[in-house]
Amino acid sequence: MSHLTKSQLSKLEHSLLEEKEGLEQHFSENENENEGTDSLRVSTGELTAVDNHPADVGTETFERSRDMAIDENLDNQLDQVNQALERIKSGEYGVCVTCGSDIPFERLEAIPYTAYCIDHTPERTVSDDRPVEEEVMTLPPKGAGEHRQQNAGRFDDADAWHTVEEFGNSDSPAMAAKRDAKDYNSLTLDDE
């Protein structure tokens, strides 16, 4: 017997169906777009990438990989929503698949497709699909860049903040003194 009332279960099922509809709509709207398998020339509509700045190609590559990651995540979420709807039909919804304890309504309300209680939620994993460039990249030599800005006579963001902070702001005493001095000088010039 489920610990959820009929109204709670109905509300959660409605939420799951809305989420499923939204996810399916996302995939139906984007089904005409390529799945990252087309060449860069085909996906951008350019005849060649030679005349483009390398950053343009990099941006396009980044956008394609980001879209693929988003679609992978949404596809996983759609699978979880469908599994939750199946658990509702079978009467197993709202129970942790690991330990069998009831999942609190508040948790189900926040994440209606969850199949786990808080204690048994699996670790999130990062996709194994990594850019091929990572295979050939090497770490910089040890110590590279350490104290580079100090030795070059430049200052970093924190130094810049402290430098700007010395000038104060419109509410600080330093600015008020400058404002008063300016007002005093303008008065004495007008009097002459």
UniProtKB/TrEMBL annotation:
Residues 91-119 form the Zinc finger DksA/TraR C4-type domain. Keywords: Metal-binding, Zinc, Zinc-finger. Residues 11-29, 144-165 have a biased composition (Basic and acidic residues). Residues 1-39, 141-192 are annotated as: Disordered. A zinc finger (dksA C4-type) spans 96-120. Residues 1-10 have a biased composition (Low complexity). One of its GO terms (molecular function) is zinc ion binding. InterPro entries: DnaK_N, YteA, Znf_DskA_TraR. This is Conjugal transfer protein TraR. It comes from Paenibacillus zeisoli.
